[in-house]
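Escalation from tier 1.

The customer reports that the assembly of three entities below gives different C-alpha cells on two consecutive runs. Tier 1 could not reproduce it. I'm attaching the input and our single run for tier 2 to review.
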Amino acid sequence: MNRILHLSPVKVWALLVAVTLISWVLTEDSDAVRFGATAVILIAAFKINMVIGHFMELQWTPRPFRIVLSLWLILVTTIIIGGYWYV
Amino acid sequence: MHEPVHPPFSAGGEASACQPESPHLPGDSGVWTFIVADMGAFALFFLLFSIGRMAAPELYESSRIHLNAGLGLANTLILLTSSLFMARAVDAARAERRSSVVNNLLLTICIGSGFAATKIFEYIDKAQAGFSPLTNEFFTYYFAFTGIHFLHFAIGIGALSWMVGKARRDTLDQRFVIWIESVGCYWHMVDLLWIMLFPLLYLLRWAG
Amino acid sequence: MEQKVDTRFWRLCAWNGPLFMGVFIIFWGIMGHNLPPYSADLPASDIAAYFRENANQVRTGMVLAMTFTISYCVWGLAIAKVMEQVVGKDNILVDLEKWGAGLTVVPVLVSCSFWLTGAFRPEALPDSVLQMLYDMAWLLIDLAYSITSVQMFALGAAFLMDRRQQPLVPKWLAWYGIWVGFMFIAECLMPFFKSGPFSRSGTLNYWIEFSIWFVWCPTLTYYLLRSITRIEQEQAHA
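Tier 1 run:
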C-alpha cells in the first residue's frame, strides 16, 4: 500500500516507452550481443511487471493473484534467458 | 462478483493519484481464470520456442534477421499507448464521466487498430518474400504465436467496441465498472504478451 | 425457475460425462493405441503393422468406444437441464449447448469407424490405404473441434448469467470452459504439420488440447451434481 508507488497512467506509459526505446538502442548498437539480449529480456520483464502492477492494477489486489502473475513472469523470463544462454 | 468498489478517482490527468482503500481485484474474478490460463498457454509457447532455438540456433538466427524489427517496435509502442487510454477509460468510468469513458475507449480502439494495420502489412510482406509457416520451425512459431496473439487482439477490439456501446447507454454504476475493468485487464494482457513476444522473436540475436 | 422440475435421472445422465471420458481413455486411448497417437511422420508400413498386429484389440476398443460415444450427448442433455434453471427453457444458449454436445458425437463416432475399418481386414488392404484411414480418423476427430467449442461457449455464457448469490457453476469454471473452447483453435494448424508441437501427436495439439478438455469434463460434472442437489433444495424451500 505504498502511496508513492501509485503512478498515474500517463507516467507509467512514459516510463514504459522510455525503457522500450532504451532496449531498442541496446539491441541495435550493443557489441556484447549476449548481454544486450539478456538486458532486453530483463527490460521486457520489467515492463510486464509495470503493466501487471499499474495498468492491471494488481499492485493493490489480494496477494494470491499478484503472486501467481509474478511467478508466471519469473518462469517466463527464466525460460527465455535460460534457453538463450544454454546455446 | 460484488467486491467493494474503488472510491471515485479525482478528475483530470492525475486520475489515479488516490488508491483503493482495500485490496480489490479489478474486473470479474472469473475473467481472471481466462487470463491466467491464457498466459499459461503463452508460457508454453515461449518454452517451445526456447527449446527449438536451443536445438538450432543458426536456423533461428538466419530466419530472425528477415523479420522487420522496426515494425515490431512500432507495434510495441502502439499497444502501450492503447493500454494507456484503456487505463484512462477505466479511471473515467469510476469517476462516472461518460464522455471521457467513450472518448478514451475510442482512442484505445483507434490506436490499437494501428497494430492490425502493421501486422497485416507484415504478414503480406513476409508472404510476398516467400515466407510461410511451413518455411521452417522458426517461421512456424513466428506465424503461429503472432497469429494466435492477433486473434486475441481481434477479440479485444470486438470487446472494446461493444464496451463503447455499453458506455453510451448504460448507467455507469458498479456493474459497469466491473465490465470495463474486465475488458481492460484482457486488453492489458494482449499488450503484455506482445511485450515478451517482440524481443523473443525479433530481437534475440545469436552470438555465434 | 418458478416451475417445479422433475430431477429424476438427471444425476444418471450427468455421470455419463465421466463415463464417456473413462471409456475413451481405456478403449479408444489405451486399447486403440491412441494414447498417444502414432506420429504422422511414420511410414505407411508402420501404421499398417499397427492395424495388422493389434487387429482384435483395436476392434474391441473401437466397438466399445462407439457404443459409448452417445454418452457424451446424454451428458450434454444433463447440462442443458441445469442450464434451464439458470437462463430459462427458452434461451437459445440451451439449444446451442444441446446441439454442440449432440453433434460432437457424430465426428467421434465416424472417426472411430475409420479406425475400426482399418482393423477390420488389414491383411487385405495395402499399407497406404491403412495409413489413409488412420489419417482420416485423426483429421476428422481433431478438426471437429468447433462443434464442441459451441457447446463450451454456450454453457459458459449461460452459467455466467447466474444471478444466484452463489452461482450453480462457479464463474472461474465457466470462463475456463470458454478458454478451452477457444484454445481448440490451434487444431487448425494440425493438418499442416507431420511433426512438432502442432502435429496430431504434438505437445500442443495432442497433450495440451486433450488434457485441458479432460480436466474440464469431470470438474463440470462435479459441479453439475452439486447443482442438481441445490436445485432440489431450492424447490423444496419454494
